[in-house]
């Protein structure tokens, strides 16, 4: 099972570090990261493996959302199925 | 394979374009709760609903978190209560409504639908008792929805029921006049009612359905409008294609959520309702889609044609996205729940007559329309009869949800708040249809051939 973490907002020091730190805490493996910085807007999409997640997925979602609020970024953590079902037949 | 564009598109749809799952609705059969003692029946009803739907809200919230998509309502539909009332027709039928309210409170759901009767050909035991109790039931409960089916293509229109429903709608408004006449906002009069509808106020769990199942109703007018905005010069068939593609994506969400809810709750998956359901929120309006197609304002000439195309494209796109489609499926046009419709009605561009024409080509019917408080029950009945005739002849579901604004007249507004929105009082004709309505009897079922 995989999930997608998207981070959009103003670039600051240590975003990737903090997001992946939370992943590590929950035993969630980062599979792939795509990121771009346009002017000072930061956009990152991270594909993570949640098969062996420690604790509840909803807890991880809560932590990520809280981190987003703290850093003034928009962070979404969603199960990959939503993207797969919407965009492929 | 996932790509960045697709991921960002999904997030934008949810974040900026009001994409949501409008409802997951659990249909529960109450046929095994029938008892000649109404108190025993009520106890069985309460226990059955709570045992089946106790985890519905929690499960809905879990899915919301998992997929990051809002599920606005968690609802329950039940077997038409008139069938249960048939076993105890001399008891106080409102007890069933109070029981449903108690179950709604325990489960934490937004609505329970099914305080209903099916009388398209005539009244059986329990039907009359239930219908007469509707105004009181809607007055003493908050989250219970009621519906009555008064006609069908196969059986014609029961004009005795039409006459009665005019009185019931008016009475429901009078009883709740102190709460902006909220009573009739929870009451739908149908022709060709469907048995697996997840949307309120007309949801009930038909007798041909399984013991328990999960339906999903999707939303997304904002997404369709945003998609059209990108193609200001597209031809109409290009627009139809864009709508189809968008409807496909929206419906896939419904299919995903329904399948997941069914798995988590251990209940069979019923249907996805391929719907475009507006809310009063900015950017969530069906009227604005029609305006995006090129109408200066919804309700002007051309509205029916635009809506017909929109409705058809939504179905064509949605039907491939889901394994089981049903319910009402199509675009909804509830006036008070749609910011664009409200504006058009206030401006006098959208009239009752135009809405009636629109209902011939879209999902349901005259929905959430506020009429002057002095409207006679006969006029309400006549509006119901007109609308039912459209449904009967065209073999489609039509419905009427009129709200007589007691003490108010044209130019005033009723404020319901929340998803129900606010509605301007719309003008009606002042000539009486009373003689026609008071004749009673039945409009015979229409020809199914010689279609002209």
Molecular structure report:
The complex is a heterodimer of chains A (89) and B (452). With 89 residues, chain A is α+β, with helices and mostly antiparallel strands. Chain A has three helices and four strands. In chain A, strands 2-3-1-4 form a four-stranded antiparallel sheet, with helices on both faces. In chain A, 30% of the residues are buried. Chain B has a domain at 26-56 and 70-191: Anaerobic Ribonucleotide-triphosphate Reductase Large Chain. In chain B, the strands form two sheets. In chain B, strands 1, 2, 3, 4, 5, 6, 7, 8, 9, 10, 11 and 14 form a twelve-stranded mixed sheet that branches. Chain B has a two-stranded antiparallel ribbon with strand order 12-13. The mean pLDDT of chain B is 94. Chain B has helices at residues 4-16, 38-53, 56-67, 81-85, 94-107, 127-140, 159-175, 221-229, 236-265, 286-293, 303-319, 339-346, 352-359, 377-394, 434-438; strands at 21-28, 71-78, 111-118, 144-152, 156-158, 187-191, 212-218, 269-276, 325-331, 366-372, 398-405, 413-415, 422-424, 442-443. Chain A: This is UPF0237 protein RF007C_07820.
């Amino acid at each position: 099972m995989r999930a997608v973490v998207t981070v959009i907002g103003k670039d600051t020091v240590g975003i990737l570090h903090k997001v992946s730190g939370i992943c590590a805490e929950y035993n969630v493996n980062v599979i792939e990261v795509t990121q771009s910085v346009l002017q000072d807007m930061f956009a990152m999409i991270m594909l993570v493996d949640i098969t062996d997640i420690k604790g509840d997925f909803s807890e991880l979602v809560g932590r990520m959302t809280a981190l987003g609020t703290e850093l003034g970024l928009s962070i979404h953590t969603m199960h990959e199925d939503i993207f797969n079902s919407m965009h492929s037949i | 394979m996932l790509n960045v564009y697709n991921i960002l598109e999904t997030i934008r749809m949810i974040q900026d374009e009001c994409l949501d799952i409008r409802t997951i609705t659990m249909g529960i059969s109450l046929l095994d709760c029938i008892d000649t003692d109404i108190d025993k029946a009520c106890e069985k009803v309460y226990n059955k609903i709570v045992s089946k739907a106790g985890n519905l809200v929690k499960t809905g919230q879990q899915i919301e978190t998992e997929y990051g998509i809002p599920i606005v309502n968690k609802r329950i539909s039940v077997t038409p209560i008139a069938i249960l009332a048939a076993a105890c027709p001399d008891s106080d039928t409102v007890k069933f409504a109070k029981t449903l309210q108690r179950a709604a409170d325990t489960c934490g759901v937004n609505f329970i639908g099914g305080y209903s009767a099916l009388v398209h050909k005539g009244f059986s035991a329990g039907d009359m008792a239930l219908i007469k109790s509707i105004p009181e039931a809607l007055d003493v409960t908050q989250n219970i929805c009621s519906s009555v089916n008064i006609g069908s293509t196969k059986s014609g229109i029961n004009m005795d029921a039409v006459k009665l429903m005019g009185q019931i709608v008016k009475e429901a408004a009078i009883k709740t006049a102190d709460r902006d006449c909220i009573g009739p906002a929870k009451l739908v009069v149908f022709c060709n009612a469907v048995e697996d509808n997840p949307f309120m106020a007309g949801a009930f769990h038909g007798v041909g359905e399984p013991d328990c199942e999960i339906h999903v109703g999707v939303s997304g007018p904002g997404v369709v409008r945003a998609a059209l905005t990108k193609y200001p010069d597209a031809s109409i068939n290009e627009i139809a294609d864009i709508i189809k593609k968008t409807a496909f994506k929206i419906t896939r969400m419904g299919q995903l959520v329904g399948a997941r809810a069914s798995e988590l709750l251990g209940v069979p998956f019923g249907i996805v309702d391929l719907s475009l359901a507006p809310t009063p929120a900015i950017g969530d309006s069906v009227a604005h889609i029609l305006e995006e197609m090129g109408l200066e304002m919804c309700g002007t000439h051309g509205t029916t044609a635009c809506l017909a195309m929109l409705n058809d494209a939504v179905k064509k796109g949605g039907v491939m996205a889901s394994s089981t489609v049903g319910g009402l499926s199509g675009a909804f046009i509830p006036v008070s729940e749609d910011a664009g419709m409200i504006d058009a009605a206030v401006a006098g561009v959208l009239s009752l007559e135009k809405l009636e024409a629109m209902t011939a080509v879209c999902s349901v019917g005259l929905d959430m329309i506020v009429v002057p408080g002095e409207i006679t029950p006969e006029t309400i009945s006549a509006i119901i009869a007109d609308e039912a005739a459209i449904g009967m002849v065209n073999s489609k579901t039509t419905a009427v949800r009129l709200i007589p604004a007691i003490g108010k007249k044209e130019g005033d507004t009723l404020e319901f708040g929340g998803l129900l929105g606010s509605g301007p009082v719309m003008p009606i004709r002042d000539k009486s249809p009373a003689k026609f309505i008071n004749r009673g009897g039945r409009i015979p079922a229409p020809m199914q051939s010689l279609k002209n």
